[in-house]
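Protein in question reproduced for absentees:

***
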Amino acid sequence: KEIRNVMTIITGDVCVPEKFPAQTEYVNALFSAEGYIRPEVDILTETDPEDGHCIVTVDIRKGPFYFVEAVTIDGNTTFSGARLKLRLGDWRSSLLFRSAARFVHKELTRDIKNLRQLYREKGYAEVTIDPVIEKDPETGAVRIHIRISEGPHYQVAFSGNEAFWDFTLKKDLVLLNEGNQSGFGIRKSIRNIEKRYRAKGFLDVRVTVKDLPEPSKTPPNGQPNQQTNRRITFVIDEGPHYLVKTVTIDGNTAFDDEKIKKQMLTAPPGFFAGGPYVPETLSDDMRAISALYMESGFGNTEVDYAVSQEPLPDDPEIIEVTVNVSVNEGPQTMTRGISIEGSVPLDAEIAADTLSMTPGTPFQPYMITADRDALAARISEKGYPHVTVDAEPLISPDHTSADITYTVDPGPLVQMGDVTITGNFKTREHILTREMELLPGDPFSLSKILASQRNIRNLAVLNSVRFETTGLEEKADHAGMLMQIEERKPYFAELAAGYDTRRLFYISTAAGNSNLLGLNKELRAALEWSQIGYRAELGLTEPRFFGTRIASRTNVYTEKVEELNIAFGVRTSGASTGFSRRLTDHLTASLNFQFEYREQYRTDGQPIPEDETELYNPRSILVTTPSLVYNSTDSFVRPTRGARITVSTDASKGLKNSLDDFFKYRLDTRYYYTPVNRLTLAVHGRFGYIDPFGSRSRIPEDQLFFLGGIANVRGFSENRLRFDADNDPVGGRTAILGSAEARFDMGMNFELAVFYDTGAVQDPLTDAGSDGFRSSAGIGLRYITPIGPIGGMYGWKLDRKPGESSGAFHFAIGYTF
């Protein structure tokens, strides 16, 4: 994929032999940048005898590569060479096998940047780090010598600041992030501090720097240090604090004082504002007032202000400012008439509805351009992409009325022409053309063309797609489209193995075809085995069911599950088919039908009681499940913002028994919020309820809710939130769960989590255990991988019962919520 990305030809392009020589240069440059000494690249072409298409083979002989033989560092006194080398990927790789020590210059550049940031964070704002690279093309050996000039060590302090804490002012410092070469960091920091003060009404603030060099001490490594320390003190003369005392408005008749003041940020101190006087803000306020009048047709309004200042008698450091705003409104201009001239391919009523300024509305000059463009866009969608619209306003001498004339030149009528597709060696053409919002002969519409392109790009069977519209620039009567696609490889195979505290050790595999028969359908066979059972399934997914925007999935499956700590297992075989449709950007509706042949059996070796024999007979069940999902989270793998809410109902009906006659209601809510950088707060709530119908009220145990474990209330063993006198888990018809978690990004892809969980299992089959809530709290550490987090958590029971363990450890791949 990386090689294809640097090439300018893709599968499906028109075969142009003149383009091939340049491809060797692109690929050669890629491998040279990746550390190979003399890569050789050849482009070989042949013609497929079956269809005449070109087959291009890129023959790459990488050859030997440069490898890191040694890394040396000098000039470092603050940090030891060993510590610095640990931050160098090139040095770490030089300790490994030669094949793992390939030298890549861009990686060294990144390492040098990290070293520079390390020094700056420790106060060395003037540090310079220069690598010297010695390459031997004959042997491939690379010796890297890093020269460090640490410069002085900065110690930063503040004095004279009473309005802001040191902690706040440190946010304005840049010298420890961007450096201080030639004093740039100090000057920029001064500007930032003064800007902060002025925004709070300290208009006369002055910031100077007191720079005291000090001889540095001998560092811990014992080497002499010739550098000096610099104690930089930002001396702040805050000056008087300018506060708004009153704001008065004169000359206004069209709007009352309060409406005008709502346009202003300049205001006396209040509950939510400190009332600073900032001249720049007041100037912006005048423009906001002018805009208010402009929106109402007062195009000649003049707004000005005058200020008076007076020290507060009891505190001369506070200057009270009185602001007087004077308004000369001028006449209000109303739109008197609208006329549309020329050949307009729209009904007069539709054309008029397109305009926002209509007779009787205030005249707003800046809206003429918007209305003109809206009218042109409306006409363009009727097949006139070359339309031009001119607008000319005529204002009366007394500025009380305006007439607007729009002149339309629609240009030639353009129809949609043919769509030419190249590169679809597997995907059938009608799968691509059905995504078009326009058919040949339809009036050309740019918005529908863009929608068509978006639909095609969203097809999962394509790697990339390029579009080219033909005939538009020539103003032809038909505009066609050339679609150049690159297909994904349809066949796939997957293998995964892992461990978590719900399934213990597990292994899963899948294989299939993501473009079955070239119809954009996925056929997938999957098998998972774990220490609690297995599941095998065969599924067919169709993103466009019968050409609609409804996605469908049909499955046949068989599984056997023996959940941890539960005295029964379940064997199930069945088939399901489901349909889903995205209603909005965040809302998806689905409907699923499922037939199951289900058998419950005991795993503890105990005989089945006579009154429960019916529960362990095979059962046939039909389940219908409508559901709604609202999802506004920012990431599927690692959400930090947004919400996910799922509502579903299982309508279950036993075909030859009444045990499975019930409604099962589920509500699952998740919310993520990141108040500050590196901290994410996650909240999870879940509710489940089973409501029997018909003549039976007994629910089979394998249909009940169980809580406890990594997926819900952590700190408790799997499924053991509620248990009976024999220490066996107890399920119920009602389950309630609540969780809160704080996730701290520790850097280096590690995340620390602190959590609180609570839950209750209620309405059991027998009166065993408690209906009350049980809670836990704990801590965990995760490592964030590209496919999600992996890590362990330990939860402590907050209401531990006699004989219970204090808590439980859990390990999982992925978030629990």
